[in-house]
Predict the structure of YtzH-like protein.
Amino acid sequence: MPLDHHHQITILKDILSEHQADCCGTVSECEQIERLVKSLLGNEQVHPQVKSILPDIYAYGQNGKYSADLNSHILSHQQQLSNWVNQLT
């Protein structure tokens, strides 16, 4: 059964929250961020305010996936992670 957009946002928020709290993550989490954002961007039921931050979150996931030092990438985005988590609420 596919996840609805509310569940997708919850999962996305959980991953971003964990990155913020732990200052570490995995390439597979970055790939999951990309997949979730792509799906949410294509869903017309997603609130425009949420859609407005999704491209930045996608770029974060994509850059993290290709980063030579993922933990440093996450650490350098702590403020954005906090902002995104708050806006996804």
Remarks:
- The mean pLDDT is 95.
- Residues 5-87 form one domain.
